[in-house]
Amino acid sequence: MARRAIRQPSPADDLDSRKARILEAVVREHIDTAQPVGSSSVAATSHVAVSSATIRSEMVALEREGYLAQPHTSAGRVPTDKGYRYFVDHLQAGVVGEAQQQQIKEFFANVRGEVEDVLAQTSTLLSRLTSYTSVVVGTGHAESAILSTQLVNLDARHQLLVTVFADGSVTKHSVLSTFDVSHVEVVEASRQLNALLIGTVLGARVQVPSRTDHVATLVREAVATLHAEAPTIDGEQVFIGGSSKVAESFDGVETVRQVLAILEQELLVVSLVQDILDQGLSVAIGSEHGFEPLVSCAVIVAPVTIDGHPSGAIGLLGPTRMKYSEAMAAARAVSAQLTQHFDGEDRANH
Amino acid sequence: MARRAIRQPSPADDLDSRKARILEAVVREHIDTAQPVGSSSVAATSHVAVSSATIRSEMVALEREGYLAQPHTSAGRVPTDKGYRYFVDHLQAGVVGEAQQQQIKEFFANVRGEVEDVLAQTSTLLSRLTSYTSVVVGTGHAESAILSTQLVNLDARHQLLVTVFADGSVTKHSVLSTFDVSHVEVVEASRQLNALLIGTVLGARVQVPSRTDHVATLVREAVATLHAEAPTIDGEQVFIGGSSKVAESFDGVETVRQVLAILEQELLVVSLVQDILDQGLSVAIGSEHGFEPLVSCAVIVAPVTIDGHPSGAIGLLGPTRMKYSEAMAAARAVSAQLTQHFDGEDRANH
DNA sequence: TATTAGCACTCGATTCTACCGAGTGCTAAA
DNA sequence: TTTAGCACTCGGTAGAATCGAGTGCTAATA
């Protein structure tokens, strides 16, 4: 996937207050109506007390500077990505509505279950709150130490290695043996595996026994199986909520298809969200997040931390003309609640 | 969700061979072109050596009997659900193409990992093979006996109960305690839990200790947490592959939205697939599967068995004018391979 | 100098009309 | 029973006419 550098906010992004208000009015109305916005409607809605003619000449300037564009002569203006960017950068933080606040509160009061379940449900919540597609990313246990491992006999030739990590994640791996394994052997192998692996991190060098007896072979097999997984960017969990909202956000069926196709590729989604976070942005508009198929999209992200460590992110994907204020407020609120939710769980232990 | 009874195949579904061939030609061409089919093109393509006029009168009959419909006077005919049904019922089994056969073989030769991973990837495979959206359902461990449980200390107040079932599935449950738990206590609780639970099934009555010491409390907590999950139709796993294909299959954005909205609801998808299987069908066309939002869809299903026990299903969802022959062949081939894949794993142990 | 009223102009969208032609249903002959 | 022939239907397409929202420019004004 070809990528373009994410735009650096340029310091020269300053408009005099009248231009700014006109731009804002255009963006607001376009977000509302999805139609090009004309000078007269700006004159009517924005509280700049000048005639449409003056606004017209200002709009010419705004277009020259790249904030607005004209679909064709004799149509109104439409914001460019740069226009949206200015709008977003100068947006005073929105607040979430009563009803939504209520929904969030209720959700977190009632939600229970394991981290994965909470994240999956959060994704649905976020999508319902905003009517955009939501993305929830949970970072994996790549750097977590192993707390415990256990080998279980499914049957004589078929063992299951279950590993618990310090972050509470659990993995399972099938181990196939070429000989019949007795219960005693499994227990002993389990014991040795615990001795070897507890406290280590996936991929760390481990001194495996070189003997050729059943137990040693089993231990070697298990360690190999476990470590085989290490190099894959593992445990990254992605939960997509409200993918049907894609069909509401974009009108061209082809655009819908493209966006869905992107969302199907979890790795892409993870790196998209990660990239935006890495750039310190909370919104990426149009071409700012160098994924060409998503040029007509804006992505809002908010990090989620557990105990102060970044451990995931939540995101919203909508059209560039999305309702930034509401969506950002919702994302912020949910990410805060989520952080608090997990920290709360944690606090109970200290 | 309102449901309608699934249509019972009626014994009177017989057309004389000429009508049948005409119907088949109409269906084939409509599937190809998505356009209403006229009598003259049937005369040209179907190998019935009669004039278009004759075909016309036959088509009138077919329409009267409910196999065809006319979008409007002076347009060609389009198959009804009943028409598709006849077509499908009288379809001789298709074969999968060379290239696809190759892809399937390759996939199963290389696929590795746990059941969940295999199912998820299979879903992607199936979708790529057919360019329809695929659904893979794995049945849960609801009836599986517990092979082993282990309680792990995440920290003093925070334990994780990891349970392994006979079918190889693993669950984890957080247990919060109101007192600090020592390592020794966790080990002892783990031992007692194993003694209590091994061999039992989720939801079975278990004699928990009534003492009030730490270990007993821990054991009670853990059992309660584990059993709390039992009533939920648990472990049903759904993997949707190629949801972007929905946007290719239907042209109205609204239809796309509706279908996506259904696919988001896993429980609905599971019951849809299950219902079709229960009726002994392998294809449900249009309104046959009483889900109103899916009237313009056809669903192909094929069961997957492990060791002879039904243990899941794979499905394909497309427009009613989908390429039944190819899609059914692909579904059959993949389900057979999948069954064989899992049985093969099993056979290694006997 | 900045603003504005006025005005000619542009051009997509809408409506209307004419018309084409694929496809039908019917009839009468083979 | 089949078929050639034919009048008829009606959605789709192409043009023409029109509409009107919105523009850019100019000249007058504060």
The spatial strand order of the largest sheet of chain A comes to: 7-3-10-9-8
CATH-derived architecture of the largest domain in chain A:
2-Layer Sandwich
Multimeric state: homodimer
Largest interface: A-B, 43 and 42 residues
The count of strands of chain A amounts to 10
The computed structural class of chain A is alpha+beta
Shape of chain A: elongated
Rounded to the nearest angstrom, the radius of gyration of chain A is: 26 Å
Task: Write down the CATH class of the largest domain in chain A.
Answer: Alpha Beta
> What is the H/E order of chain A?
HHHEEHHHEEEEHHEHHHEEEH
How many domain modules of chain A?
3
- Tell me the helix content of chain A: 40-55%
CATH topology of the largest domain in chain A: Beta-Lactamase
CATH-assigned homologous superfamily of the largest domain in chain A? GAF domain
Distance between the termini of chain A: 45 Å
Low-confidence stretches of chain A: 1-11
Mean pLDDT of chain A: 91
Strand proportion of chain A, as a percent range, falls in 15-25%
